[in-house]
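Recap from last week: sequence in, structure out.
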Amino acid sequence: MRCIITGLPMALASAGMRVCRAGYQVVGIDRDTARLAQTRAEFAAAGYPLPCIVADLAQPDAVADAVRILAASGPFDVLIHNAGINAVGHFAASNLARQRAVLRVNLLAPLLLTQGIVQAGLLRDGGALVLIASLSHYVGYLARQCMPPPKTASPRLGAVWR
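Predicted structure tokens:
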């Protein structure tokens, strides 16, 4: 059994380890090479190899490259979308470029990655698609500019994609 986790070095590293203990081979995707290396070392110390793909999911070409790399290793049983970024500060003073990046990572990347994986036949029949939402889906945060809308959309995307 195989599982892809985006944003693995973040909060899901310990969850990724539990996925390995359940018998899955995990493949991690993240843009931060140093954090991926650290996470890979932690997995190796626990006896789990961790193939990793360095990809900035804010860039559609990087998402397409990740799909091509994944395609070379065969199908997966689970795809977990955890990668996410936010923009902090008052909305009136917000940086539009940062807000666009948030939308690309938190909303567009899951759309493109899921579409690419499904089109390539990389998600096995009966496979699971997991979209990690933010607590922002349930409560608002002051000084969060743009993270809530795309991370709030995650649960709805999952319902639509069933």
